Amino acid sequence: MAINTLETGSFSPEEYKLIEHEHLQLRNSLKSLRDTCRNLYNQISCQSCAREQIATCKGRLVSSFYNIINIATNHSNHEDSIMRRLSPITREFEVLRRHERAHNNILSELNAKVSQCALLDAQGETSEAYRQLYKMMSELLEALIPILS
To answer: Domain span at residue 111?
Structure first.
């Protein structure tokens, strides 16, 4: 789901830098998922890993849930705030509303995926939780970040 943030004007250099920093944080979260789970690219369960690795994965997964939701929420709030500043209350107001609704939908989907992954983790399917969260985050970043890069 692409969101064109440049429809209503231009970001200031500071705003652009903030948005790019948040994109970097999201990319780093994705990298952390990739670097932690040894079974991300196969269908092997956690039972192929040592006990210490499983504990590391479980702890980092829970941490990732909070980090990703926090970064995505802050990013949406920052971007929406910038767009409000750029959008006069004219025909472009509807562009802003669509953009805000898109952010809300993305955050709802992300929260639902995190809940689903937390359930998988609780059921001992930590590697599957990593795979699903990684897939969603990859798709999300692929759809959103190229717009400003």
So the answer is: 13-147
Using DSSP's 3-state secondary structure scheme, residue 112 falls into helix
Q: Which residue has the tokens 């926090």?
A: 70
Interval 130-145 mean pLDDT = 86
Residue owning tokens 């509807």: 94
* Number of domains making up the chain: 1
By CB atoms closer than 10 A (0-12, 13-18, 19+), residue 41 is exposed
Determine contact, residues 1/102, Cβ cutoff 8 Å. Answer: yes
pLDDT tens, position by position, 104-130: 998 999 999 999 999 999 999 999 999
Q: Tokens at residue 108, please?
A: 């709802």
The answer to whether residue 74 sits within a structural domain is yes
Prediction pTM value: 0.81
Task: Assess if residue 4 is contained within a domain.
Answer: no
